[in-house]
Structures are given as C-alpha cells and as structure tokens.
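User: Sequence in, structure out. Go.
Assistant: Echoing your sequence, followed by the structure tokens.
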Amino acid sequence: MFTISDIETTGLNPSVNEIVQFAYLRLDDNLTPLQSGCMYFWHPKMIWGAEEIHHIPEALAREHADEFEDNLRRMYTILSGADVVGHNCNSFDIPFCRQFLARHGLRDMNVNNGYDTMSIYHPVFKKRMKLENLAQELGITEEIITMCCNMWFGENSHAHDARYDVTMTELIFAQALRTGVL
C-alpha cells in the first residue's frame, strides 16, 4: 500500500513554520485508490503566510480551527509506518511533518519508506525538476490532472493546492512504475 501525500506550509523553516494543508491518497499495491482526504490546520498563534503562494485564505483554514487536534492525530496516523510517496518528500515534506507533529506533541512519527518522485526521475532527466515541470515533461496534461483530482477529492483545485499536487504525484509515480523507471 502507498500513501501519496503533500503539504502546504506558511514557510520553508520546519522549526517555526506551520502546515496549513495536508492532502493524501492511499493506494493498494495495484495503485487502486482506496481513500483520499484533505485537512486544514489553523490555531490562534499561527503567523499566516499561505495565501500568496497556495491561494489558501486564512479564513478557510480558520473554519477548521476546531479540528486542529483531531487533524494532527489523523495526519500522524496516516503517515506513521506508511510507504509515503511525494515530490521532494524525503528532503522536505517528511522532515517538515515530523517536526510539525513533534512541536504539537506527537513525537516519533516515522514512515516506512519514502518514494521521492524528484529523486526517482533525477537520473532520467539529469536534473531536479519542479512537480509541474516533471508532469509536463512526462506528458501528463492539466486536463488529466484535473479529472483525476476531481474524481479522488471531489472538488476543483489548482497547482500549489495539496490535493492537486497529490494527484500530479500519483500520476507521475504510477508512470514510473509502469515504465520501469522505479
């Protein structure tokens, strides 16, 4: 089973910045989707900085303030012991999640394996590529991404939204498995 995940944050420093959105898609070993979800994080001491890049208004995250503790536990449970797939996940997402959860009292979050699509495709293209550029290079169109995102998450989203990025990552990972890149 694989867990495709992505986070959107208030900044790049996991010691002080916060996760504002976490999306995931669980797949069985045949890459059949089993479960998807998206959660938002907001607390009163949070310094907001997610709207310019991620187009996530603080008001949207604030609507989920009463879910903060439950969402922390859910995210911890989803990632703990999972085979996590993400784009730049081994260098950024997984360590950021680990520190974020620990700062909020959930220590020792460890994933089983991290499958990083940036690293997987580095030998193919001989460079590190942004998620959108990698999808484009592999012929994965916006229409396909949007269709799958709507199917798995039930609503429209866009690049730099964790649901959309999870969808792109899943399509890229599936192609890596189908073509023998991984």
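User: And one key feature?
Assistant: The chain has one domain: 2-179.
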